Predict the 3D structure of the following.
Amino acid sequence: MRKDITTDSKDQLPQRHLTWPHCYNTRDLGGLPTAGGKTTRWRALIRSDILTRLNQEGQQALLDYGVRTIIDLRSPREAEEEPLAFVNDVPALTYLNQPLEKYYPHVSDLISQAQSRGEVYCIVLDHYPDAVAAVMRAVIESPPGGIVIHCHAGKDRTGIVAALLLRLAGVPPEIVAADYAESQLRLWPLYEQIVAQAGDADPVDFWLQPTATVDMMYMMLDHLETRYGGVAHYLQAAGLTSHEIDQLKGRLCPA
């Protein structure tokens, strides 16, 4: 399956990064090539880091971009500690807290023993299919308009969901992996801030390590193929009907 994307190919991809004030890792999933020779829809699905940092200008930019639904993949505790307060003042926005993970002690043990983020992603897929299905149904049932899917950094939980959606749309694995790895570039300014603020008080080695590489995503994509036979089969096993899968694909694929 693996085919590394070249530097030239990266340069040919559309510029999808959105400069919403105080968000670092926000980009449109539109404009990417699919197996059918088309491209994914613009302004349909947007991946992002946490939106609580948005100022009024950023909130307006979100609305002006056509966003009408926000799907928050964080845990209820995270959402309570850092709520998106502004959504309560915007009738045009629908907000859903739809956690991607649940707390199961045995799964937490597996995750703590994982050797890489790619392995963690495989564990999430294997042990939280009901949560994945719930997120996908939230996408399907969202009202017309753009959908922002986010967690905290917009890298891990959001990365899993974005990869599933892109592969279902027929985007080649190497481009899915490149989209995932872009988070490393986008989050780097934030990591630099964290390191600078920590000074000598806290260990900062973690923030200086690569945290989103193509290899991590390829591990998950390979797992989807070898264990489940692809994204559509995985989603069927998770409980989605063929009609729901077609509806989900329609969110990102032009007719």
Remarks:
- The first strand starts at residue 27 and ends at 28.
